[in-house]
Amino acid sequence: MLTGFGGSLSLLLGIISLDFNRYGPISVLHSGTDVVIHYLLSRFFSTLSFFSERKLKVAYKNLRQVQTDFLLARLKANANTDYGRKHSFAKIKSIKDFVQMHPITTFNHYKDYIERVEGGEADVMIPGLPVLLALTTGTTGASKLIPFPKEHPREMFLKQMLITDQKIKKVHSNGHSLQRTLDLKYYTRWDKSKGGIPIGQFTGTPTAYGKSNITSAMRLTVTSPPAAFEIKTDQEIIYVHLLCALRDKNLGRIEACFAVTVYYSFVLLEKRWQELVNDIKLGRVNPELDIDDRIRNELNSHLVPMPHRARELAAEFSRGFSSISQRIWPHLNAIACATGGSFAAYYTTLKQKYCQCTPVVSPGFMSSEVVIGTNLWLESEKPEFIINSLVTFFRVRASRKRGPGPARD
Fold it and tell me: b/e per residue, 214-230, with b = 16+ CB within 10 A?
C-alpha cells in the first residue's frame, strides 16, 4: 500500500516538475519560497479563470436567459429595501415587466436615496449598508458616489479582472510566467460619510476602504512593497513604483487604470533616470523625496545595492528613450490600461516613442458604476469587448435616426 502511495506521489511530483519547468522567466526579486508560492497561486488562478471565461462565453450564447436570471436575482435580493418596495421589485417577473414598471434613469433619480445612505440609513437601496461609497473619477462629468454592496468587489475580480489578467498571460507569455507587475496606482484619500461609510475611488490603491488590503498574492506579483502604496504625493509614489520595477530585469507587465498614467510615468522616468539609477546602485530611496520617515525606512528595508543593474540601465538610458520599455525590460509582455476615448492620444504617444515594441492592450470597458465589456481578443491592441452579462444587466434601446417618434426598448 505504501509502495502504491509512493509511486503515485512520485508521479504527481514528476508532473508538477514538468509543468513548473515550463515557467519562465522568473522575477529577479523572487526568493526560492516566492517562486514556489507564486507557481501554486498561478495554477490556482489559471484554473479559476478558465471556468470564469467559459461561463462568460456560454452566457453570450444564451444571452436573454442569462440576463433574465441575473436581473430577477438582483431584484429579489433588493426587494425588501425602501427603493425595492417603492418600485415593486417583488412583482417583477420578467424583463418585460421590468421595462414597463421601471423607468430609464440617470444619477439624479437616485440622489436622494444615496444621501440617505451617506447618513448611515440601512436597507435603502441594498440590504444593510454598502461596504463602500465609490467616488467616480469624474472623467465624464462631476464625481458621484456609488454604493457598493459587499459582493461587488469579489464579482468584479472573479468575473472581469481575473479573466483578462489570465488572458494577457496566455496570449503574451504563453500562460507560463512567474514574473512581477509594475502596478501604477496612486494613493486614494479615504473619507467617511456622515454615517461612517468609507468614501474613496475604487480605482485607487489596493486598500480595503482605508485599511491595508495588500494580499499575500499581491506581495508576490507586484514589484512595489506594501509601504509604497501609502505614499500620498503623486510624483513620489510613481518615482518609487519605477524604482522598484527597474530593479527587476525580468518584469512581466505594466498595469494602470488609464494610458495617461503610463505615459506620465515614462515622462518622469526620462526626466529623473539618473536619480533612479543612483538609488538602484546604492540600494536606497532618494533622500530628497517627500516621504514619511516610517514609509522610507520600510521601503529601504526591501532594497539592496544593485550596481550591475544600475550600469545596465544607465547604458540603455544614455542611448535615448525610443522603445525604452523593451530595452530595460527585455521580457516585458504587455502594458494593460484603458486606451480608448480621451486616452487614445496618450496611447498613440506611448507607441510612437516609449513602447514601440511592447503591446499596449485595453483589458476592459468599465467604470466605477458598472462593468460593460471584457476584452477576450488581447492579442490585438485594438480595443474590442464582449458585453459582460455576468455582472451587469443591459437594457438596449433602439432609436430612430430619422423621422418622428420616440425611441423604443
Answer: beeeeebbbbbbbbbbb
- The DSSP bridge pattern shows strands 198-200 and 191-192 to be antiparallel
Distance CA 269, CA 329 (A): 14
Dihedrals phi, psi of 255, to nearest 5 degrees: -130, 145
Q: Are the C-beta atoms of residues 298 and 322 closer than 8 Å to each other?
A: no
Looking only at the bridges linking them, the beta strands covering 211-212 and 207-208 are: antiparallel
Helix (H) or strand (E) holding 336: strand 334-338
> What is the rounded distance in angstroms from the CA atom of residue 362 to the CA atom of residue 257?
9
Q: Does 399 have pLDDT greater than 70?
A: no
List the one residue out of 143, 145, 142, 144 whose CA is nearest residue 130: 145
Neighbour count for residue 377 (Cβ, 10 Å):
14
Helix axes 259-282, 307-318, angle to 10 degrees: 130
CA nearest neighbour of 210 among 238, 189, 233? 189
Q: What is the DSSP secondary-structure string of 63-80?
A: HHHHHHHHHHHHHHHTTT
CB-CB contact of 243 with 165 (8 Å): no
Residue 122, φ and ψ in degrees, nearest 5: -90, 160
What is the spatial distance between Cα 219 and Cα 212, in angstroms, rounded to a whole number?
12
Q: What is the pLDDT of residues 283-341, one digit of tens each?
A: 999 999 999 999 999 999 999 999 999 999 999 999 999 999 999 999 999 999 999 88
Quickly tell me which residue has 483589458 as its cell.
363
CB 346: neighbour CB atoms within 10 A? 20
With CA atoms as reference, report the closest residue to 143 among 133, 129, 131.
133
At residue 108, the 3 state secondary structure works out as helix
All three cell numbers of 253, joined, read 507587465
